[in-house]
Every structure is written in C-alpha cells, then in structure tokens.
Specification:
about 120 residues, 3-stranded parallel β-sheet, 5 helices, about 10% strand
Length: about 120
C-alpha cells in the first residue's frame, strides 16, 4: 500500500526495487531523511555515494533528528578511518524541525519545479 500521506499522482508502483532506486536518484531535487531502518539507510547511502562520486547532480540532503543519526552512524569515525573525506560530511546537514529542514534545503540549493531558492 502506498504511504497514506503521499500525493496520489506522485505515487509510483515499481515491480523491481532497483528501478525504484534508479528513479529516486534520477528525479530527486532534494532528500529529507527521517529515522528509519535498512531501506532508509540503503536509499540514503545510495544518494550520498552518487553525490560523493559526482555520478548524480548535487541535491541538498537533510537528516532529521541529529541524535538518532549520530547514535546509529559514527560519521566522524568514517573520516578518522580514512574511508570518507571530511568534505563528504558537507553532503548533508542535520535538522530538527520542518522549518529548519526547509531553510536548509533552500540554503543548500533546492531546485524544484515552480519553487525558487528565494521562496
């Protein structure tokens, strides 16, 4: 079943999971990530990797709930171990509220149809 909060005309049904991920990566103007499980982590790391390797155009990414994300992923340890660059930490920003998220998305260059970064 589709998420009950989704706009019906934006609800897509994909037979193959890989196609869903490809369409997400191709069409996302921004990504707002909320605490979740394996699927959330998979999609988050997919888009972070595509941006890190410059295989996808830049799109702002915000992670809602900093304490959650810092508890489950030690981003600084990834830098310390040399498996990501310190600059990779700028691919996303932590936010707490919808207002903070919207401000971050605009500040970080949100480009959506009919929405200017000044809105």
């Amino acid at each position: 079943m589709p998420n009950p909060y989704i706009t019906p005309e934006l609800s897509f049904r994909f037979h193959y999971f890989a196609m869903r991920k490809m369409h997400l990566a191709m069409r996302a103007n921004a990504l707002a990530i909320f605490p979740g499980g394996f699927g959330t982590l998979d999609e988050m790391f997919e888009l972070l990797t595509l941006q890190q390797t410059q295989e996808a155009p830049p799109a702002p990414i915000v992670l809602f709930g900093e304490s959650y994300w810092r508890r489950i992923i030690n981003f600084e340890a990834l830098v310390e171990e040399g498996v990501i660059a310190v600059s990779d930490l700028s691919l996303f920003e932590f936010v707490e509220t919808a207002e903070d998220g919207w401000a971050s998305l605009k500040r970080r260059g949100l480009r959506a149809h009919g929405v200017s970064s000044a809105s």
